[in-house]
Design a protein that fits this description.
This protein has two domains: about 160 residues, 3-Layer(aba) Sandwich (Rossmann fold); about 50 residues, no CATH class. About 35% of the residues lie in helices and about 25% in strands. The chain has nine helices and ten strands.
Length: about 240
């Protein structure tokens, strides 16, 4: 049973996926409403990253359905997903280290008219003044935190309706974690939905409306992010003793 919330922008029903003969996801249901921030929590190996990859066509879905803005996305592929406004920022600061900050962002907007590309780049840089000041520097010259900001900015260039963020805090100092996750809260205020995979539970819950927990390729809990006793429910869920969602 799903927790009530805004009208579903992303509606994932019973999907299964994996790598070759190795099944990872087993009948996963997830919904994200328009303008909603939803955290996807769980231990390493639970299937969180695999789910994000399946949602954006980086991995084939073998069963179930993925609908985004009432469109069937099962066979859309990464390019079709991005064009529809379903944008994935993958884990690990994936940027082009030999290209400048500006060129990294221009590449993210490669299929847009030239005048539109320039406007989108400036729009994304306005979110992160730290990298706007380094727009001519190569990506490899940025700090780890700045590279993560650039990776998120690449996603923002697409003006996503739903941004999928895979562990944006990985390897960052506490100050930079707050800076990057603060952008998530700002996106919600402007109507952009976010599906956030994060290991820092308290930080994730602070910016989220709802939460799903995964274990062994299945959703084992869903709840409001401000629900009393949620930490205890998450702990039980991780150890296979999930309370009823």
């Amino acid at each position: 049973m799903h927790i009530s919330g805004p009208e579903a922008l992303l509606d994932v029903c019973g999907i299964s996926a994996g790598y070759g003969k190795i099944a990872v996801l087993h009948g996963v249901d997830v919904r994200v409403g328009a303008g909603e921030v939803v955290s996807l929590l769980g231990p390493n190996g639970a299937g969180k990253t695999t789910l994000l990859r399946a949602l954006t066509g980086l991995l084939s879905v073998t069963a179930g359905s993925v609908r985004f803005a009432d469109r069937d996305m099962k066979d859309a592929g990464p390019r079709g997903s991005a064009r529809a406004g379903l944008v994935h920022v993958v884990e690990g600061h994936r940027i082009f280290t030999q290209l400048s900050v500006t060129d990294n962002l221009l590449l993210a907007a490669y299929d847009l008219p030239r005048r539109e590309r320039a406007a989108r780049v400036e729009e994304a840089l306005s979110v992160f003044p730290e990298i706007a000041a380094k727009r001519h520097d190569r990506g490899g010259m940025l700090s780890g935190g700045q590279q993560q900001m650039l990776a998120v900015a690449q996603g923002l260039v697409r003006r996503p309706r739903l941004l999928l963020l895979d562990e944006p805090s990985a390897g960052l100092s506490p100050v930079l974690v707050d800076r990057v996750l603060g952008v998530v809260a700002d996106l919600r205020d402007t109507g952009t939905a976010v599906l956030l995979v994060e290991q820092l539970i308290d930080k994730a819950l602070a910016v989220s409306d709802r939460v799903y927990a995964m274990a062994q390729g299945r959703v084992v809990l869903q709840a409001r992010a401000d629900e009393p006793g949620l930490h205890q429910r998450l702990e039980r869920a991780y150890f296979g003793e999930a309370a009823a969602a």
